[in-house]
Amino acid sequence: MRSEARRVAATLLLGIAAAAATAGAARAQTVFACEPEWAALVRILLPHARVHVATHAGQDPHHIEARPSLIAQLRGADLAVCTGAELESGWLPVLQQRAGNPSVREPFFASLQVELMDARPGAVATPWSGDVHAAGNPHLHTDPHRLAAVAAALAQWMGQDFPAQREAIEQRHAAFAARWQGAIADWERRAAPLRGRRVAAQHTTFAYLWRWLGMEQVADLEPRPGMAPTPAHLGRVRDRLLAAPPAAIVTASYQDPRSARWLAQQLAGAGVAVPVLLLPATVDESADEAALRAWFDGLITSLLGAS
Q1: Coil, strand or helix at 150
Q2: Is 221:237 a contact under the CB 8 Å cutoff?
Q3: Which residues contact 298 (CB under 8 A, 6 or more apart)?
Q4: In whole angstroms, what is the distance from residue 110 CA to residue 152 CA?
Q5: Neighbour tally for 206: CB within 10 Å
Q6: pLDDT tens per residue across span 38-47
Q7: Where does the chain have alpha helices with state H?
Q8: Distance between CA atoms of 73 and 99, rounded to whole angstroms?
Q9: Which residues are registered as beta bridge partners of 227?
Q10: pLDDT tens string 20-36
Q11: What is the per-residue pLDDT across 84-117, written as a single tens digit (0 to 9) for each?
């Protein structure tokens, strides 16, 4: 009888231990994403994760407030996924310090996974220099090829951080990579007429998009990166564009469009019609793969419509 009781007890203990292990492996991870595009990748690779997003498409990711709610979200995160290249240097270090979470002392930085455009080694930001990024332009997510490279690196990083889910993450990534390459091929076919087109834009938010599509930004509405357009600078830009009009004047969703509209009105008054495009700088905070694809579709559709 005792032997049977011991056997039953041992079986129950093993069952409890197995259930506990399964629960631990299946526990939803909490991820803090600095920008919506990385939150979308997290949801593709780790669909059951709880994802907090620090910024949205209507915000300039260079400049946000280190709010108590963000500190609390970072404090409870198992992983932080950010752009890097000094994009979040004005607020992420403050969040990290106040959160005191050892799990996010070393975030996953997308900018470290790809080659960046326009690196300026040794450059130092000052109050008069605007947004200076010595490592290079941080807005890499507007190139779907670089986005794919970041997804591959993120899948590997997640597999190391969450070993119980490594195989599932690898499988999800492989499926995503195949679908994404097919989407890129479709976008490049659609966007072929844009090659060689010239645009004026505010900031270099879409610099990677222009390079990918073979387009050229011929003027920046900002006198220095991150500094608001001034009347004197806009006047010089107007004169330059009158001599060689672009296909469009582009602003990002987080920027004030009044300078672009003024410039378009000035050109129209001189008999040169140039449309203003207000393009979303990223996806919605709750975005997933479908939203990422729709975002690139929309960018290309808008640019084709202005050409």
Answers
A1: helix
A2: yes
A3: 280
A4: 11
A5: 26
A6: 999 999 999 9
A7: 2-26, 36-45, 68-75, 92-99, 144-161, 166-190, 207-213, 231-243, 258-269, 289-306
A8: 8
A9: none
A10: 334 444 568 999 999 99
A11: 999 999 999 999 999 999 999 999 999 999 999 9
CA distance 156 to 154: 5
CA dist list (Å): 259 to 132, 166, 223, 251, 300: 22, 48, 12, 9, 23
The CA-atom distances, in angstroms, between 307 and each of 174, 245, 277, 292 are 36, 12, 11, 23
Plot region of 252 (φ>0 → left; ψ -120 to 50 → alpha; else → beta) = beta
Statement: the pTM of the whole predicted model exceeds 0.90: no
Instruction: Name the phi and psi angles at 201, rounded to 5.
Output: -150, 160
For the packed helices 144-161 and 166-190, what is the interaxial angle rounded to 10 degrees? 180
For the chain, give the longest Cα–Cα distance: 101
Tokens representing 126?
């000052």
Residues whose CB falls within 8 Å of the CB of residue 250, separated by 6 or more in sequence, listed in order: 199, 200, 201, 202, 206, 260, 276, 277, 279
Structure tokens at 302: 């808008």
* 132 touches 120 (CB < 8 A): yes
Are 257 and 247 spatial neighbours (Cβ–Cβ below 8 Å)? no
| Assigned token pair, 106 | 């070393």
pLDDT band at residue 122, thresholds of 50, 70 and 90?
Answer: low
Dihedral sign of CA atoms 139, 282, 231, 86 in order: negative
Q: Using H for helix, E for strand and C for coil, what is the string for 103-125?
A: HHCCCEEHHHHCCCCCCCCCCCC
Read off the pLDDT of residues 272-293 as tens digits, 9 standing for 90 and up.
Answer: 999 999 999 999 999 999 999 9
- Asked whether 251 and 194 are in contact (CB, 8 A), the reply is no
8 A C-beta contact, residue 217 and residue 203: no
Instruction: Give pLDDT tens digits for 51-88.
Output: 999 999 999 998 899 999 999 999 999 999 999 999 99
